[in-house]
User: Which sequence fits this backbone?
Protein backbone atom coordinates (compact mmCIF):
# COMPACT_ATOMS: atom_id res chain seq x y z
CA UNK A 1 0.00 0.00 0.00
CA UNK A 2 2.77 2.36 0.87
CA UNK A 3 4.70 1.39 -2.22
CA UNK A 4 1.72 2.18 -4.49
CA UNK A 5 1.17 5.60 -2.93
CA UNK A 6 4.82 6.41 -3.28
CA UNK A 7 4.67 5.46 -6.98
CA UNK A 8 1.59 7.55 -7.64
CA UNK A 9 3.11 10.43 -5.79
CA UNK A 10 6.22 10.22 -7.97
CA UNK A 11 4.16 10.15 -11.12
CA UNK A 12 2.17 13.13 -9.93
CA UNK A 13 5.34 15.10 -9.21
CA UNK A 14 6.69 14.36 -12.66
CA UNK A 15 3.46 15.52 -14.23
CA UNK A 16 3.46 18.69 -12.17
CA UNK A 17 7.08 19.33 -13.25
CA UNK A 18 6.15 18.90 -16.89
CA UNK A 19 3.19 21.27 -16.58
CA UNK A 20 5.31 23.82 -14.74
CA UNK A 21 7.94 23.64 -17.45
CA UNK A 22 5.35 24.42 -20.10
CA UNK A 23 3.94 27.39 -18.18
CA UNK A 24 7.35 28.83 -17.14
CA UNK A 25 6.43 28.82 -13.43
CA UNK A 26 8.28 27.46 -10.44
CA UNK A 27 6.75 24.64 -8.43
CA UNK A 28 7.60 23.85 -4.82
CA UNK A 29 7.20 20.25 -3.74
CA UNK A 30 5.75 19.56 -0.36
CA UNK A 31 7.76 16.40 -0.01
CA UNK A 32 11.26 17.68 -0.25
CA UNK A 33 10.69 21.46 0.34
CA UNK A 34 12.92 22.35 -2.59
CA UNK A 35 12.33 24.69 -5.55
CA UNK A 36 12.63 23.01 -8.94
CA UNK A 37 13.62 25.65 -11.48
CA UNK A 38 11.50 25.56 -14.57
CA UNK A 39 13.09 25.20 -17.95
CA UNK A 40 13.33 28.48 -19.82
CA UNK A 41 10.69 29.08 -22.42
CA UNK A 42 11.95 28.47 -25.98
CA UNK A 43 10.33 31.71 -27.06
CA UNK A 44 12.12 33.73 -24.38
CA UNK A 45 15.45 32.09 -25.22
CA UNK A 46 14.98 32.84 -28.86
CA UNK A 47 14.23 36.49 -28.09
CA UNK A 48 17.35 36.75 -25.90
CA UNK A 49 19.50 35.30 -28.62
CA UNK A 50 18.07 37.76 -31.07
CA UNK A 51 18.50 40.78 -28.76
CA UNK A 52 21.97 39.92 -27.49
CA UNK A 53 24.16 38.04 -29.94
CA UNK A 54 27.03 35.95 -28.79
CA UNK A 55 30.48 37.47 -28.44
CA UNK A 56 29.35 40.61 -26.60
CA UNK A 57 29.63 42.72 -29.77
CA UNK A 58 27.30 45.56 -30.75
CA UNK A 59 23.83 44.55 -31.87
CA UNK A 60 23.61 43.60 -35.50
CA UNK A 61 22.09 46.21 -37.72
CA UNK A 62 19.91 45.67 -40.72
CA UNK A 63 21.15 46.23 -44.28
CA UNK A 64 21.99 49.80 -45.10
CA UNK A 65 19.53 51.61 -47.21
CA UNK A 66 20.58 53.10 -50.55
CA UNK A 67 20.74 56.55 -49.01
CA UNK A 68 23.04 55.43 -46.17
CA UNK A 69 25.40 53.64 -48.57
CA UNK A 70 25.99 56.76 -50.60
CA UNK A 71 29.44 58.15 -49.90
CA UNK A 72 30.12 61.65 -50.97
CA UNK A 73 33.19 61.83 -53.11
CA UNK A 74 35.57 64.64 -52.26
CA UNK A 75 35.13 67.54 -54.62
CA UNK A 76 38.12 68.10 -56.85
CA UNK A 77 38.94 71.67 -57.70
CA UNK A 78 40.94 72.18 -60.85
CA UNK A 79 44.24 73.90 -60.17
CA UNK A 80 44.30 77.48 -61.32
CA UNK A 81 45.77 77.75 -64.76
CA UNK A 82 49.03 79.59 -65.05
CA UNK A 83 48.57 83.08 -66.43
CA UNK A 84 49.51 83.35 -70.06
CA UNK A 85 52.37 85.76 -70.40
CA UNK A 86 51.19 88.87 -72.13
CA UNK A 87 52.61 89.39 -75.57
CA UNK A 88 54.73 92.50 -75.91
CA UNK A 89 52.94 95.34 -77.55
CA UNK A 90 54.08 95.89 -81.12
CA UNK A 91 56.43 98.75 -81.59
CA UNK A 92 54.80 101.78 -83.13
CA UNK A 93 55.39 101.81 -86.85
CA UNK A 94 57.80 104.42 -88.02
CA UNK A 95 56.46 106.73 -90.68
CA UNK A 96 57.87 106.01 -94.12
CA UNK A 97 60.24 108.83 -94.88
CA UNK A 98 60.54 109.74 -98.56
CA UNK A 99 62.50 112.48 -100.17
CA UNK A 100 60.38 114.63 -102.41
CA UNK A 101 60.79 114.72 -106.20
CA UNK A 102 61.40 117.84 -108.29
CA UNK A 103 60.00 118.51 -111.77
CA UNK A 104 61.38 120.18 -114.96
CA UNK A 105 60.03 122.08 -117.93
CA UNK A 106 59.85 120.48 -121.35
CA UNK A 107 63.30 119.69 -122.77
CA UNK A 108 64.99 121.53 -119.85
CA UNK A 109 67.28 120.51 -116.98
CA UNK A 110 67.37 123.86 -115.15
CA UNK A 111 66.17 123.83 -111.51
CA UNK A 112 62.87 125.70 -111.31
CA UNK A 113 62.12 128.13 -108.49
CA UNK A 114 59.38 125.91 -106.99
CA UNK A 115 61.88 123.02 -106.86
CA UNK A 116 64.47 124.93 -104.82
CA UNK A 117 62.53 124.71 -101.54
CA UNK A 118 62.06 120.97 -102.09
CA UNK A 119 65.81 120.48 -102.55
CA UNK A 120 66.51 122.50 -99.40
CA UNK A 121 64.21 120.23 -97.36
CA UNK A 122 65.91 117.15 -98.85
CA UNK A 123 69.32 118.56 -97.95
CA UNK A 124 68.32 119.11 -94.31
CA UNK A 125 67.06 115.54 -94.10
CA UNK A 126 70.26 114.07 -95.57
CA UNK A 127 72.60 116.13 -93.38
CA UNK A 128 70.74 114.91 -90.29
CA UNK A 129 71.51 111.32 -91.38
CA UNK A 130 75.17 111.24 -92.38
CA UNK A 131 75.17 107.44 -92.54
CA UNK A 132 72.63 107.38 -95.39
CA UNK A 133 73.18 107.86 -99.09
CA UNK A 134 70.81 108.91 -101.87
CA UNK A 135 70.30 107.86 -105.48
CA UNK A 136 68.95 110.53 -107.87
CA UNK A 137 67.09 109.15 -110.90
CA UNK A 138 66.61 111.33 -114.01
CA UNK A 139 63.35 110.77 -115.95
CA UNK A 140 61.77 112.20 -119.15
CA UNK A 141 58.43 112.08 -120.91
CA UNK A 142 57.71 109.86 -123.92
CA UNK A 143 58.48 112.45 -126.58
CA UNK A 144 61.85 112.33 -128.29
CA UNK A 145 64.19 109.42 -128.95
CA UNK A 146 65.39 107.06 -126.24
CA UNK A 147 69.04 108.13 -126.69
CA UNK A 148 68.22 111.82 -126.41
CA UNK A 149 66.07 111.28 -123.31
CA UNK A 150 68.83 109.26 -121.63
CA UNK A 151 71.17 112.25 -121.96
CA UNK A 152 68.46 114.69 -120.82
CA UNK A 153 67.64 112.51 -117.81
CA UNK A 154 71.32 112.45 -116.78
CA UNK A 155 71.52 116.23 -116.99
CA UNK A 156 68.46 116.60 -114.74
CA UNK A 157 69.92 114.22 -112.12
CA UNK A 158 73.26 116.03 -112.25
CA UNK A 159 71.56 119.42 -111.74
CA UNK A 160 69.79 118.13 -108.61
CA UNK A 161 73.07 116.67 -107.29
CA UNK A 162 74.93 119.97 -107.69
CA UNK A 163 72.20 121.82 -105.86
CA UNK A 164 72.40 119.43 -102.91
CA UNK A 165 76.17 119.79 -102.84
CA UNK A 166 75.83 123.56 -102.71
CA UNK A 167 73.53 123.08 -99.69
CA UNK A 168 76.21 121.10 -97.82
CA UNK A 169 75.52 117.44 -98.67
CA UNK A 170 78.73 115.44 -99.16
CA UNK A 171 79.13 114.59 -102.90
CA UNK A 172 80.26 111.02 -102.13
CA UNK A 173 76.84 110.29 -100.63
CA UNK A 174 75.02 111.15 -103.87
CA UNK A 175 74.76 108.81 -106.86
CA UNK A 176 72.95 109.57 -110.14
CA UNK A 177 71.38 107.42 -112.86
CA UNK A 178 69.30 108.18 -115.99
CA UNK A 179 66.32 106.10 -117.15
CA UNK A 180 65.22 108.49 -119.90
CA UNK A 181 61.66 107.65 -120.91
CA UNK A 182 61.92 103.93 -120.05
CA UNK A 183 60.28 104.11 -116.60
CA UNK A 184 57.39 106.57 -116.86
CA UNK A 185 55.40 107.42 -113.74
CA UNK A 186 52.27 108.04 -115.85
CA UNK A 187 51.37 106.30 -119.12
CA UNK A 188 48.62 108.60 -120.41
CA UNK A 189 49.25 110.75 -123.48
CA UNK A 190 48.54 114.19 -122.02
CA UNK A 191 50.43 117.27 -120.91
CA UNK A 192 49.63 116.62 -117.25
CA UNK A 193 51.01 113.10 -117.54
CA UNK A 194 54.13 114.25 -119.39
CA UNK A 195 54.81 116.86 -116.69
CA UNK A 196 54.77 114.16 -113.97
CA UNK A 197 57.33 112.14 -115.94
CA UNK A 198 59.83 115.04 -116.31
CA UNK A 199 61.33 114.65 -112.87
CA UNK A 200 64.28 113.85 -110.64
CA UNK A 201 63.38 111.08 -108.20
CA UNK A 202 65.26 110.71 -104.88
CA UNK A 203 65.72 107.20 -103.49
CA UNK A 204 67.15 106.97 -99.97
CA UNK A 205 69.64 104.15 -99.43
Assistant:
Amino acid sequence: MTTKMTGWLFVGLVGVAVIAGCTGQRVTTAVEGQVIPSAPSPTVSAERETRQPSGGGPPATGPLTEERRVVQEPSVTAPPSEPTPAEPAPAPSQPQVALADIYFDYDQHVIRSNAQSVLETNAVFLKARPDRTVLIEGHCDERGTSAYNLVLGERRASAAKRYLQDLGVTPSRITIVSYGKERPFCTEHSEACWQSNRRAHFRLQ
Summary: Helices lie at 2-23, 42-51, 66-69, 113-127, 146-166, 191-197.
